[in-house]
């Protein structure tokens, strides 16, 4: 066995426990999220709000303090209305961790808030590929569809969001509003 092969084997052996620990931690997060989503289906309004906060906390964990800091800086920029800076922060995260769905969702929100619906929809699509239960992305997509006059599609997407999170008040209001509009058009 060559020296290079022995060194590589040593490195793999040293890092394997770390990789297994990370894989198990990810599995635990999935189990935790599965439990939260199960509880969400039958929760009352107050409990649903607490569960939703727990879900957002889990979704916001990138696994990297540096990425978490960038996420927070992007959110801070967004709260100040500085969407360009927010997009830059979220893009930096995506460049380094393209599997981190919440970075895509945050950037989609920044694009939406700045009126850039095309890039927002593209990012929402990526969020939903990575995290099909992302009720925030579904809600945002429904809002874009509604704002662009695609009310039938918006209603479908809003209903999909409610299937995941039945207590989203803004989405419940939107469904009611769109159903009322549809009934008025049928008369």
The Cα radius of gyration reads 20 Å
Structural class: mainly alpha
Number of strands: 0
What assembly state would you assign to the polypeptide chains in this entry? single chain
Main sheet attributes: strand count, strand direction, barrel closure: none
Proportion of residues in extended strands: under 5%
Task: Tell me the number of helical segments per DSSP (H or I, 4 or more residues long).
Answer: 9
Distance between the termini: 82 Å
Mean pLDDT: 88
Shape: globular
The helix content is over 70%
Q: What order do the SSEs take from the amino end to the carboxyl end, as H and E? A: HHHHHHHHH
Structure characterization notes:
- TPR repeats lie at residues 67-100, 101-134, 135-168.
- It comes from Tabrizicola piscis.
- With 187 residues, the chain is mainly alpha-helical.
- The protein has a domain at 1-59.
- The chain is 83% helix and 0% strand.
- The protein is built from nine helices and no strands.
- It has helices spanning 3-42, 45-59, 65-79, 83-96, 101-113, 117-130, 135-147, 151-164, 169-186.
- Helix 7 runs antiparallel to helix 8.
- The chain starts with a helix and ends with a helix.
- The model is unreliable at 11-28 (pLDDT under 50).
State the main characteristics:
TPR repeat; 187 residues; globular; 0% strand
How do the strands and helices of this protein lay out in sequence?
Layout: H1 3-42, H2 45-59, H3 65-79, H4 83-96, H5 101-113, H6 117-130, H7 135-147, H8 151-164, H9 169-186
